[in-house]
Amino acid sequence: MLEVLPEGVVIRKLWIGESDKYGEHMLRLDPQSRRNRFGGAVSDDYIRKYADLSSALETIVHGCFIDGVLRGAAELRPLGSNRPRQAEAALSVEKPWQSHGIGSALLARTLLTARNRSFCLLHMACLADNQRMQQLARKFAAELSFDFGSVVGEVESSRPTPLSLMREFLTDGHGFATAMLDLQSRMLRA
Ligand SMILES: CC(C)(COP(=O)(O)OP(=O)(O)OC[C@H]1O[C@@H](n2cnc3c(N)ncnc32)[C@H](O)[C@@H]1OP(=O)(O)O)[C@@H](O)C(=O)NCCC(=O)NCCS
Prior knowledge:
- Helix content is 43%, strand content 23%.
- It has helices at residues 19-27, 31-38, 44-56, 102-116, 131-139, 162-189; strands spanning 9-13, 60-66, 69-78, 86-93, 121-125, 145-147, 150-154.
- It is globular, with a radius of gyration of 16 Å.
- The termini are far apart.
- Coenzyme A binds at residues 33, 36-37, 90-93, 98-104, 124, 126, 130-133, 135-136, 139.
């Protein structure tokens, strides 16, 4: 899928030790987005613990950085040995940056990663009144099937291909290089 993102936007996987950035991003969500992200009202403390836990589990988080600040994230969390080859996905984009294609770009990366990990079923909990997420899920109709009150997606193909692995490898490499350049320019400015 073609990604047309605003200038200065970098999408890459979060590294170990960046769970505080993830927590700060989720704490900045407006009340409605926070409710939609977690399927109900949750406290700041809950979010901090949730972010800490995400680095301990086998969770893969793609982050969207704008001018070096994490403004959007997509999480891919395996459901464990009881439900092998199944994972849960969850997305969040801070309000001022919604409707700029960031959610779509994050979901595309998450689907590629899910495919390359051979997940064949991807669950996305979505409240029935969350039209924005439903609209986003519809954009990926070829890869996700939509159900009332929840999105349960079947990843297009359970088998990774050399091409799908190469695509993830290239986007990871590009994300790393851009992050290094960003860091370097910040240090020079300081
Ligand atoms: C759902 C969410 C991740 C979407 O992120 P986003 O960056 O706004 O998504 P995009 O800009 O890629 O838009 C995706 C689609 O949503 C639809 N959309 C965008 N803005 C919309 C609006 N104001 N109202 C209704 N639909 C809208 C459009 O169809 C859009 O696709 P298009 O731009 O190709 O037409 C974001 O709104 C969010 O973080 N919401 C709060 C948390 C949440 O609901 N998470 C999902 C549960 S896990």
